[in-house]
C-alpha cells in the first residue's frame, strides 16, 4: 500500500514514515504545498496524510485539487489545527478522517488500515479470490488453508492484483505501485516481470490456480 505524507515538520514526517514503513507501507513524503500538488497530479496513492498548515499554501486547497482530479485516494487530515470548523470544512470537502496532533503512531496506523479496508475491501478483514485467502490484519496468505511465505513485494503484488481483479493492469502501473515516485527514474521495468514470475511460481506450487494472466502488449490481469 502506497502512502503520501504531506507534512512540513521533517522530523515528524520522518517518524511517521519510519513507523509506517515498518508496517509494510510504501511511504512517500512532501514538505511544501507545491511539492504536494506536484505529487498528487503525477501519482496515485492508497492514502494521503494531509497537514493543513504548509509552506506556500493551505492543505484544504490540496484537498480541493484531489477531488477536482477525481482521485479515489483516501485522505486523513493530520493537523495541529483542531478547531471544529477546520474539521467540518475538511470533511465536507471530502476528507475521510481527521486526527489532531499530537497523536500516537499506532492510532494513526489503525486509522489508515480502517480507511483502506473500507475503501478497497468492503470493510472485510479477509480478502479471498479463487482458493487464495489473505488476512489483512496479520498479512498472512493461505491457499487451501495452507500458509505460504511471500516477500513484502510479492504480498503487495498479490494484494494489488486481487484488489483489481478482472482488470488489466499495465506494467508501468505495477512499477509505480511497487516503487512509488521512483518509478520514473528506473531504466526499465523488468523487475516487475521478475516479481510476478516469482509470485506465480509460489502460488502454483502451493496449489493455487494460475490466475495471473499476461495480456500481450498491455499488462497483466488477475482472472477469477
Automatic annotation (TrEMBL):
Q: Which CDD domains match?
A: trans_reg_C
The modified positions for 4-aspartylphosphate read: 51
DNA bind region: 124-224
What are the Response regulatory domain coordinates in residue numbering? 2-116
User: Do the record's keywords include DNA-binding?
Assistant: yes
List, alphabetically, the SUPFAM superfamilies matched.
C-terminal effector domain of the bipartite response regulators, CheY-like
Q: Which InterPro entries match?
A: CheY-like_superfamily, OmpR/PhoB-type_DNA-bd, Sig_transdc_resp-reg_C-effctor, Sig_transdc_resp-reg_receiver, WalR-like, WH-like_DNA-bd_sf
A GO biological process of this protein is: regulation of DNA-templated transcription
Task: Specify whether Membrane is a keyword of the entry.
Answer: no
**Superkingdom of the organism of origin:** Bacteria
Give one Pfam family.
Trans_reg_C
Domain OmpR/PhoB-type per the UniProt entry, residue ranges = 124-224
Gene Ontology cellular-component annotations: cytosol; protein-DNA complex
- What SMART domains does the annotation carry? REC, Trans_reg_C
Report keywords, A-Z: DNA-binding, Phosphoprotein, Transcription, Transcription regulation, Two-component regulatory system
Q: Which PANTHER family match?
A: REGULATOR OF RPOS
Q: In its UniProt entry, what is this protein called?
A: DNA-binding response regulator
Task: Give the source species.
Answer: Bacteroides faecalis
